[in-house]
Amino acid sequence: MAYPWTLTFLCGLLAAKLVGATLSPPVVLSLSSEVIKQMLTQKLKNHDVTDTLQKLSLLSALEKESSGDISGNLVKSILKQILWLKVTSASIHQLQVQPLADSQQLMIKAPLDIVAEFNTPLFKTMVELHMEVEAQAIIHVETSEKDHAHLALSECSNTSGSLRISLMHKLSFLLNCLAEKVISLLTPALPKLVKSELCPVLKAAFENMRGELLNLTKVPMSLNSEHLKLDYISPVIDHSVVHLILGARLFNSEGKVTKLFSVAGDSLNLPTLNQTPFRLTVRRDVVVTIIAALLHSGKLTVQLDHVLPEVARKLKSSIKVIDETAAEQLGPTQTVKILSQTAPVLILDQGNAKVAQLIVLEIFANDKDSRPLFTLGIEASSDLQFYTENNLLVLSFNEIRADRIHLMNSDIGVFKPKLLNNITTEILTSILLPNENGKLRSGIPVSMVKDLGFKSVSLSLTEEALVVTPASS
């Protein structure tokens, strides 16, 4: 049950929260084209793309190409004199991933550098050919029949005008004529070979990368007895950035969904990267839910004289100012009970975060009493700090302030709760603050940062979100 005094407080905070708010997804993982390039390069290595290039069957490709030549019989007789024709070295120069003109697709360019050799019993000289060709493909967003949007790769082929084939050494006139004929056959054959042999490897590498990106978002975040799971919704390509739009669900210890975050509205307020490789943007209400789950509200009961005798002495002195008889009732088992009335409210500003809580404080003369001497409703606030430690995002309150105190009920008559302002703040600081910081200490796993290849991160705040980016080296 919310008391009347809480309603005014919450309405004020809600108004402050909504100033300047715009629609945005619950969570967005934004990746630069540079990150996409690095991931795809690694996946190509995993698929041993160099081995694929070195196994290109050039001689078979020439034989197929010669079948349509008007002088096919002559060419075939020449090719029969070639003992072998094979790739001796091959590599992919640095991949390029660039936005296309419509800003909603990315072009992948893979420059290939190939050296091949052939020999013939007609000549003792080994003929070396240097071949350059560029494979290309397009990353775009594709929507399936079930309206599930996903990243897809299409139009894999060679780049028009990128093919270069040349002799690596000077040859005799007759051998040069043979080499030129081989080159003329390789000119149409090599792009076809690249399309049939390399494009499937490029597509497989892309699918592995796409699967890895999805797996990054599926790791649940443990939050004490609850856990938060991100839900992949759709990708968006905007210029040179790939945004993965994510929803979120909070599960309790029994595996039931207790809170669902989804994307609302047709237009999205997507973040910009500002020259950073990646950016994880977590919307404010998701951060609030994480904090609430970590704190896990419950009643905190402390026998003050046993744990904090000096604070107990100060409490007795403060109550004595209000009612001497009540102060004398406080015994060795005097008890303080603290209850968080509602979930915390998070107020973000550029570079700063503040958490407001509604707290109920009950003071009992001893541990046998069922009724408190009085009950206070406290509007408390704390400055929230974020930092990372061992792949964990850790939160902590650096202080707790009793901004307003309300007398909710009293067995010692009506009094001005302001008289207890100092001792109330001390009780919260001595009991509630270390308890809450201990719960927050468990932190939030940020394993996706390590999985993306970054060792550390930097944290920042906007008016609407918590932002995680790579730490500058």
Automatic annotation (TrEMBL):
Give the residue range of the signal peptide.
1-21
Q: Which residues form the Lipid-binding serum glycoprotein N-terminal domain?
A: 36-255
Cross-referenced Pfam families: LBP_BPI_CETP (PF01273), LBP_BPI_CETP_C (PF02886)
| InterPro entries assigned to the protein according to its UniProt record, in alphabetical order | Bactericidal_perm-incr_a/b_dom, Bpifb1, Lipid-bd_serum_glycop_C, Lipid-bd_serum_glycop_N
Q: Which UniProt keywords apply?
A: Signal
Entry-linked SUPFAM superfamilies: Bactericidal permeability-increasing protein, BPI (SSF55394)
List the Gene3D superfamilies: Bactericidal permeability-increasing protein, domain 1, Bactericidal permeability-increasing protein, domain 2
- Protein name in UniProt: Lipid-binding serum glycoprotein N-terminal domain-containing protein
Which organism is this entry from? Rangifer tarandus platyrhynchus (Svalbard reindeer)
